[in-house]
């Protein structure tokens, strides 16, 4: 277990800004509005030569009922239990508030070393708050400005005596995501690369608000890792957790729900715009996306929009129909889904579909089996020889049409990438190549080489005419 810091404090004192500064990138959403962070977020931080794990937490509220604020406070308590040192942060410009004093007293009773961090100290307005901070009884405050990167050397000096001697050693394996696929020797038409167990699959859980994404994540992890509840839109940040399934390393990401753009007001829902951007970036970096549907409203217009976006990004897709235990006519619901996929997403045939109940933990094994299977197909590679034996048969069965009175010539095909399977097709008149014939070839690739359910990309290449530049 790496050395861990938990950043704790009341809302809007700059905890997420410091978290982003320590991890060296914008992982957590930051805004002037209090209470942006709700779930605890974990990242790998570095300060000077010291490396550690850092946890961003929700702003502490004195709530002990069943409210969302109380559930956020419970997440913060879990973060403190997992940490070795707590960074108690205050806003030096606002001075010490009664809520700061209350939680400082609470931290002293938790048996964890505490470093008092006074944030927003980039001007003279913070001097009074720095003096007040001594009254919290947590020792000398460390003056920093997380937004401007000031005072981090002093924070390093305060951390160094509390950290083990080997805290500067970083032996974390590098996740090399090289998508190029060299030619391989052996028999058979297709090659299924063995997925390295130490190389994690990036698995994103996506969907509309309140369909059960966070409940699914908690069910897979078998712990209350992210906040859940009847309120729609609880999740704001994309929360990543390192996990493993049957020995396969997985980076599991819970995301904010994606509503239709027409329902988002740019002024009133600034945070939602930020959350949507975070979710779209998660999809772009994912390997496999699990699109969670509500069994009561299967594959509505927004679900189709999200699914199309996943395919356009070249990610593998698995559809999970949640709350299946509430459906009365299972056959009718499945037929409805099949019809919508065939009419609205014909470019991707064979997308795996799993019916499940996240709340009851039903069919989670089947869901993860589908994820691993589609990930293998997404990584699949077809050899050049079989491809060019397949191509003439496709041309004979359905010859290319004439373009400007000339027959299209298709000379050669090879796979240039996996993740998703990407092919280069060498043709004449590439700019005039009909989309209908390209779809015909893509469907043939999908059926002949077992590429069902993943996006297939074909890049048209036209050999250069050696006589084009000559008089």
Task: Characterize the structure shown.
The longest helix has 16 residues, at 270-285. With 471 residues, the protein is of the alpha/beta class. It has helices spanning 15-23, 68-82, 98-108, 127-133, 152-159, 213-221, 270-285, 301-312, 330-344, 364-378, 384-397, 435-448; strands spanning 4-8, 41-47, 50-56, 85-91, 114-119, 142-143, 190-191, 201-207, 239-245, 248-254, 288-294, 316-322, 353-355, 381-382, 402-403, 406-407, 410-417, 422-427, 457-461. The strands form five sheets. It has a six-stranded mixed sheet with strand order 2-3-1-4-5-6, with helices on both faces. It has a six-stranded mixed sheet with strand order 9-10-8-11-12-13, sandwiched between helices. It contains twelve helices and 19 strands. 37% of the residues are buried.
Which overall shape is indicated by the principal axes computed on the Cα atoms?
elongated
Number of helices: 12
Give the overall pLDDT as a whole number.
84
Classify the secondary structure makeup into a structural class: alpha/beta
Report the sheet-strand fraction.
15-25%
Residues in helix, %: 25-40%
Largest sheet: 6 strands, mixed
- As residue ranges, the low-confidence spans are 169-186
Number of strands: 19
First-last Cα distance: 71 Å
What are the key terms here?
single chain; 12 helices; 471 residues; alpha/beta; 19 strands; 6-stranded mixed beta sheet
Give the secondary structure arrangement, pairings included.
Layout: E1 4-8, H1 15-23, E2 41-47, E3 50-56, H2 68-82, E4 85-91, H3 98-108, E5 114-119, H4 127-133, E6 142-143, H5 152-159, E7 190-191, E8 201-207, H6 213-221, E9 239-245, E10 248-254, H7 270-285, E11 288-294, H8 301-312, E12 316-322, H9 330-344, E13 353-355, H10 364-378, E14 381-382, H11 384-397, E15 402-403, E16 406-407, E17 410-417, E18 422-427, H12 435-448, E19 457-461
